[in-house]
Specification:
Blueprint: H1 12-21, H2 23-40, E1 43-45, E2 54-56, E3 59-66, H3 68-92, H4 97-100, H5 106-110, E4 132-141, E5 144-151, H6 158-171, H7 173-177, H8 187-197, E6 209-212, H9 221-231, E7 234-236, E8 241-244, E9 247-250, E10 257-258, E11 261-264, H10 287-292, E12 297-299, H11 316-324, E13 331-332, E14 336-337, H12 341-349, E15 354-358, E16 367-369, H13 375-387, E17 392-396, E18 402-407, E19 410-419, E20 421-424, E21 428-430, E22 435-438, E23 454-460, H14 479-484
Parallel strand pairs: 3-23, 5-13, 6-7, 6-11, 11-12
Antiparallel strand pairs: 1-2, 4-5, 4-20, 8-9, 9-10, 14-17, 15-16, 15-17, 18-19, 19-22, 20-21, 22-23
Helix pairs in contact: 3-11
Length: about 500
């Protein structure tokens, strides 16, 4: 965004397109996208709210656009962060040098429910713990990106990134052709090559890779089946696999076939009833014994949850300095640890200004957005924090960026985050961009699909669009219009009522 009200260069051609297309035509395209996604079956499941559990994630037809230089800086920071997180995991399940050096409290790691004692002294194939990471980013200004959280267990959403791009090409071929957009369609190939790269050393040229799903009742089952199909590998459930002589086999019509790499979309505690929860019916008995014997690779490695725990998150910049001897390229959002007395006092005194999260929560559940909460809700969270302070962290409500979004009241600014997907095998791979999640309710800061959020296609431009320079917006007719900033929603500097938000795409 430019303070003078000019459109950012990457959005110049899109601004012209929106100016000439009209909202009615965009709404028709939105309905076409919904029909397309429903026909393909692009859904996620919610089993706790009644009604049809299979839901469409709302798709906004106006893409989020990043310049090439913006992405290049982001990708450098993402690679640095993922390497540091992997080094941390190797260390805390090994020598624990960062703990010995006093850079992170021992109790925070060793007494954390995300820490798996079963993984102590173990080195995963290739020394890689987080083969697939999803790093959530937010933006507060033209050059200010912050890491909101790290997802190192079983990050989801990449299927929506790929389907969103396909939908844009189908619905808007002309405007897509006017931009040089970095491709993302090769992600399944990159994922498969990364998975093959961590196969046990005994494997031949073509390791057998499978995707392990808990089954069709999982909320991300569509993604599991989508990725297996795109990679050309088998989608299996626990009952399709068995362990013999500390090796994993898949049942096939031609007889047992040994499995070398498992991209598992099952939580740690359900992976192996002989090692973790004895009542698990979706895991594979003996899987961990085969894993520890080096006869199969798991992506991601069990125990990676300690690296994306929200209470450990504030220490990631220190991990970068400790393990890589570098300064962090990407900054954290300032975070208050409620288990610290001084932090707890500050949080309780400022609940109306902060976002409070469960340290081990996800999906937008167990969260309080203080400025938008009622006094009753804030009082409830204050009681929870006093009762179990170690369960909560708090962060300031940053001036999150907005991007133009087609809402019920036309095109307007909505808050977004960005989840790029980082693949780590023998090398680090990323497709440009990621999944942009958007808070569809005006003023809302919650982008999670389970909480009413939607998604957008994310464009990284390989070069600026033609004739992009110096395209200015007309002056708004009055102060109220400036406050709402509905013109090309969010592509100009804007102030969303009650949010203290700068409208940076």
């Amino acid at each position: 965004m430019h303070a003078e009200g000019a459109i950012r260069t990457p959005y110049a051609e899109m601004a012209r397109f929106l100016d000439t297309t009209g909202e009615a035509a965009l709404e028709q395209k939105r309905l076409e996208a919904e029909t397309l996604f429903r026909r393909i079956g692009v859904t996620f499941a919610v089993y706790t709210e009644g009604g049809d559990p299979e839901r469409l994630i709302p798709f906004d037809v106006i893409p989020r656009i990043l310049a090439r230089d913006e992405w290049e800086r982001l990708s450098q920071g993402l690679e640095q962060r993922v390497r540091a997180l992997n080094a941390f995991l190797s260390d805390v399940y090994g020598k624990r040098e960062i703990i010995e050096a006093g850079r992170i409290p021992a109790a925070l790691v060793l007494e954390n429910e995300g820490f798996l004692p079963q993984m102590q002294g173990f080195t995963p194939p290739g020394g890689v713990w987080t083969v697939i990471s999803g790093i959530d980013l937010v933006r507060t200004g033209p050059d200010n990106f912050y890491v909101l959280e790290d997802n190192c267990r079983t990050p989801s959403g990449v299927s929506y990134m790929l389907e969103n791009r396909e939908a844009m090409f189908r619905l808007f071929p002309e405007i897509c052709a006017r931009h040089r957009i970095a491709p993302v369609s090769h992600y399944p190939e990159e994922l498969l090559e990364t998975l093959k790269s961590i196969a046990p050393a005994r494997c031949g040229a073509e390791p057998c890779v499978v995707v392990l799903t808990p089954g069709p009742y999982n909320s991300a089952y569509y993604e599991h089946s989508f990725l297996a199909d795109e990679m050309g590998v088998e989608l299996v459930e626990g009952a399709d696999l068995f362990v013999r002589d500390e090796a994993v086999f898949m049942r096939t019509t031609a007889g047992p076939k040994q499995v070398d790499v498992i991209y598992r979309r099952i939580d740690d505690e359900f992976l192996d009833p002989e090692c973790f929860r004895a009542d698990s019916v979706v895991g594979v008995p003996g899987l961990m014994a085969a894993y520890r014997a080096g006869n199969v690779a798991l992506a991601n490695a069990p125990g990676t949850g300690i690296a994306d725990d929200k209470a450990v998150y504030p220490y990631v910049p220190e991990m970068v300095r400790f393990y890589l001897k570098e300064e962090p390229i990407l900054s954290n959002v300032p975070t208050f640890m409620c288990e610290r007395p001084a932090d707890q006092d500050y949080v309780l005194a400022n609940l109306d200004k902060l976002v409070v999260k469960l340290a081990r929560g996800s999906g937008g559940y167990g969260m309080l957005v203080g400025p938008h909460a009622t006094q009753e809700q804030r009082d409830d969270f204050a009681a929870r924090i006093r009762a179990r302070p170690g369960d909560y962290i708090a962060q300031p409500t940053l001036a999150l960026s907005t991007v133009p979004t087609l809402g019920e009241d036309g095109i307007g600014p909505r808050h977004v985050d960005l989840r790029p997907f980082v693949l780590f095998g023998k090398s680090v791979r990323m497709v440009p961009g990621g999944l942009t999640r958007v808070a569809l309710r005006q003023g809302s800061l919650v982008v999670n699909s389970s909480q009413g959020g939607g998604t957008k296609d994310t464009w990284v431009l390989l070069e600026d669009p033609p004739d992009a320079a110096q395209l200015a917006l007309p002056a708004p007719p009055d102060a109220a219009a400036m406050a709402q900033s509905q013109t090309l929603g969010g592509m100009t500097q804007s102030q969303t009522p009650g949010s203290q938000t700068q409208g940076n795409a």
